[in-house]
Amino acid sequence: MVDKLSEFAAGPDVDQTGWIFGLGYDDALLGRHPDRDDLDRVSTELPVIAVHISGHFSAMNSVGLAKVGYTAATPDPEGGVIRRREDGEPNGTLEELASIPHMLAAINPTTPEGQLYFMQRGLAMAKSYGYTTAHEGRAFGFNHDAMASLAEEGVYDIDVLSYIDYTSKDILDGPWHSRDYRNRYRVAGLKITLDGSPQGRTAWRTVPYLLPPDGQEPGYAGYPAIPDTSDVAALFDEAYAKGWQVLCHTNGDAAADQMFAAMRPAHETSPEQDRRHVLVHGQLIRIEQLDTCAEFGVIPSLFPMHTFYWGDWYDQIIGPEAAQKISPTRSALNRMPVITSHTDAPVALPNLMQILWSTVNRLSRSGKVMGPDERLTPLEALKCITIWGAYQHFEEDRKGSLKEGKLADLVILSDNPLTVDTMDLNTITVLETIKEGSTVWRREG
User: In the structure, what pLDDT confidence band is assigned to residue 160 with cuts at 50, 70 and 90?
Assistant: First the structure.
């Protein structure tokens, strides 16, 4: 990890943000989180940040900690933890809201030239995996401002929609919030994040983790991002009153309980309205909570790629029996007509064929089947990322299937996902991505 960051430090991209940064370290594989001493080996002159694969943690070097103002006297923010040495000084590892605001500032370019450069690279990656509509799942105000500015310049050749973090919700009262795209960009709704990551053990559960993270005592069950449920209820009240669609990040079952408790009063006053609210991730959701999703018309957008990346890790931190029910796609589909799946990039590369493979096979890194009864068929898994994804975004009338009258958004694949051996689904590659009849990306050769 130190070598990779040092390699990045020698390249041109550091000038875009002023930070040496890298995304994707995994303490489940490294054995621990990196600390300031590790990152001081990268630089003692420039700030360095390494972002956890979940996006919910980061680690900074000494210069980075000084830049954001973290000292022994800095209290933990609500919804976050500054991990510390015995003397109280930050050890460099930051959790949740102690990390996220500073992490976002460190990895996002501030100049128009830098924003264009990063966006062009992101669009190229998305198109290489076959995306004709890209979903920004948590945009803060400065993210939206940059995306809207790039839209005005005509940068996008695929559709981009964003969900605005509740801390920047005034944007939803503005002109970009619409069901229609302007220059291929629109604001689609509100994002509320209620807890953290299960693999990082900050997801909020009703039962303790079997293996608490460093610095936590037995009985630790994660924690909420917004402790006061009345604050969450106020957001849902406003969303219902103004007709906003809500995406709610809930990994742990306690967070899902909070979501349902917060939305129930508003929902009961207008139960027939077509909101299509979304429960995002649902890694540790209880099966009976899927019945509540069906009751409220909430779409579960699950994350079955976790079965591969962290299935073996879940065996250790929540136990083998509970680990079999992470991202319970079959249980969800048995209860409602539409579910979706995602990669949560950059948590995992936005590889749609890897989603198919994981949803159908549910194999861990070691080859263990994680919940055989929760597997979907290839056709069902394909619908999760095409027609049902379009439905989630109120776009099923023009996207998601090949049909007369719809947009010619399609991809050409190297093989047929409905006929290949299911173990070969993740070997299929995108050969060409076509947006409204025009090729926007073609694989070389």
Answer: very high
